[in-house]
Amino acid sequence: MSGKQRIDDEPAFVLHSHAFKETSLLVEVLSRNHGRVALVARGARRPRAALRGLLIAFQPLDLGWFGQAEVRTLAKAEWQGGQPLLGGQALLCGYYVNELLLKLLPRDDPHPALFDAYQAALRGLSLGPPYQIVLRRFEMALLKELGYGLTLDLDADTGSAIIPGLNYAYIIERGPVRRDDGADQGIAIPGRVLLNMAANDWNHPETLSHGKVLMRSLIQHYLGNQTLQSRRVFVDLQDV
Amino acid sequence: MSPSSLDELIDALRCLPGVGPKSAQRMAYHLLQRDQRGAQRLAAALDHALRVIRHCARCNTFTEDEICARCLSQKRDASTLCVVEMPADLNMLEQTHAYHGMYYVLMGRISPLDGIGPKELHLDKLLARATDGSVGEVILATNFTNEGEATAHYLGEMLRARGLKVSRIARGLPVGGEIEHTDAGTIAQALVERRTL
Ligand SMILES: [Zn+2]
């Protein structure tokens, strides 16, 4: 990517931030057209800084920045509004979503469709429970954008269409295979559930329960040896 | 070559929040060259504080005693317990003269993405304090940041499950605040949290 010197009016969300030097903040953002970007917000931790209280996660912002190094300098931030603050369980789900982006999406890799899916997820979370559907939709979009898209409607062995009445086992990096062919590996999922997932239809409880198990395994697989802190921290409150 | 005592000092100063290598070097030169007496005082005060200061067994704030003077006071309302993130927050609440109950200082906040959860914050100590039989209401006065909200949510769930009345301090426009000069985020949230008259 070239021409990275100066970016203006870029829709973005703060994913996480850290104290940086005496008074600054190092902010990881997800931007619509430039992907995940690391920015230094100079002086943002001074008591009366205009940026203080503005650079918070889950709020739509318009950002401007400059610089060519990996960490760029924030020039401008404007609050956009329209997204209620997250609270309670929705907030914990938000942390989970942010952590997925921080751990699975490399910096400077633009994915406008993923940005839109993220914005839709935050909106969904702000509407209240149930949150599981919101999370499963986001996870599917994330895996697709990262190039790990799942084929859920075709048998990985034969290439033929999944049959609703049969039982399958989903094998990571391969796909669904017929379970009664002696396969005892993979994650057991009925055909009708696979087809619902493929259609992104999460309305049936069994789709959600299988979806949760499948997504957990897939995400852990792609995370490698990284641990999801948001999940560990809230182990006793977690039901997502 | 082993690190010189100067390098060791510079490195030690970097444990202070927001102090990078350059500032640490500046501080070290200042202490050694311009203010040796100040440096001695700092060293002695730090050494002394580390030996005598501990966390109050009841409210968790810094104290030199097993239980701090505020927790021992008979004049305070023992039935309300106000939970704050840091001692500075407690001081601010005291300045209001509007609260006369007890406190619990978390000494931090839940920050999931930094790996700081209930266990790291030792919230079992707060749960024990809140359920010791004297407390009727717990007021959650953590910050209105995402981390403060996550902390309040977690504490609210845990304390309510133990039969305690739990409340959260209100948020909205500042006293004397004019809508025209208030940030949009605050106004938006004030609308969400509006109350019926
Ligand atoms: Zn005390």
- How much helicity do the residues of chain B have? 40-55%
Largest sheet of chain B: 4 strands, parallel
Broad structural category of chain B: alpha/beta
**Strand ordering within the main sheet of chain B:** 4-3-5-6
CATH superfamily of the largest domain in chain A: Recombination protein O, C-terminal domain
Alpha-carbon distance between the two ends of chain B: 74 Å
How would you summarize the topology of this molecule?
The complex is a heterodimer of chains A (240) and B (197).
Chain A: E1 6-20, E2 24-31, E3 35-41, E4 61-66, E5 71-79, H1 88-104, H2 112-126, H3 132-145, E6 167-171, E7 175-178, E8 187-190, H4 191-198, H5 205-223, H6 229-233
Parallel strand pairs in A: 3-5
Antiparallel strand pairs in A: 1-2, 1-4, 2-3, 4-5, 6-7, 6-8
Helix pairs in contact in A: 1-2, 2-3, 3-5, 4-5
Chain B: H1 5-13, H2 21-34, H3 36-52, E1 54-55, E2 62-63, H4 69-72, E3 77-84, H5 87-95, E4 101-105, H6 123-130, E5 137-140, H7 146-161, E6 165-168, H8 184-192
The structure holds zinc ion (ZN).
Descriptive report:
- The complex is a heterodimer of chains A (240) and B (197).
- Chain A is 32% helix and 24% strand.
- With 240 residues, chain A is an alpha+beta fold.
- Chain A folds into 2 domains: 7-79, OB fold (Dihydrolipoamide Acetyltransferase, E2P) (Beta Barrel); 85-240, de novo design (two linked rop proteins).
- In chain A, the strands form 2 sheets. Chain A has a 5-stranded mixed barrel. In chain A, strands 7-6-8 form a 3-stranded antiparallel beta sheet.
- Chain A is elongated, with a radius of gyration of 20 Å.
- Chain B is α/β, with parallel strands linked by helices.
- Chain B contains 8 helices and 6 strands; from the N terminus they run H-H-H-E-E-H-E-H-E-H-E-H-E-H.
- Chain B has helices at 5-13, 21-34, 36-52, 69-72, 87-95, 123-130, 146-161, 184-192, and strands at residues 54-55, 62-63, 77-84, 101-105, 137-140, 165-168.
- Chain B has a 4-stranded parallel beta sheet. A two-stranded antiparallel ribbon of chain B has the order 1-2.
- In chain B, helix 1 crosses helix 2.
- The chains are: A alpha+beta (240), B alpha/beta (197).
- The structure holds zinc ion.
- Zinc ion is lined by residues 56, 58-59, 61, 67-68, 70-71 of chain B.
